Adenylosuccinate synthetase (hydrothermal vent metagenome), 92 residues
Amino acid sequence: MANVVVVGSQWGDEGKGKIVDWLSERADVVVRFQGGHNAGHTLVIDKKVYKLSLLPSGLVRGKLSAIGNGVVLDPHHFVAEIKKLRAQGVTI
């Protein structure tokens, strides 16, 4: 897959998370490059619900995922989100 960047033109819910999830099915690497844990999105994959706000969406699809230096990282929220996804069977 070619390099693809999803950038919104406004703050708030405009469907970026759904587009990223759709693209991540075909991606080799998924990178979160900006924002913070206030940007939540919900994914439903095979009838299982995942709620993410800091970690890249590609994690729930088993894709190589990275967090870039433009992301505001709250360490407490980061650890809590990892624990939540691991409890749902996601390998991180």
Q: What stands out?
A: The first helix runs from residue 16 to 24. The first strand starts at residue 29 and ends at 32.
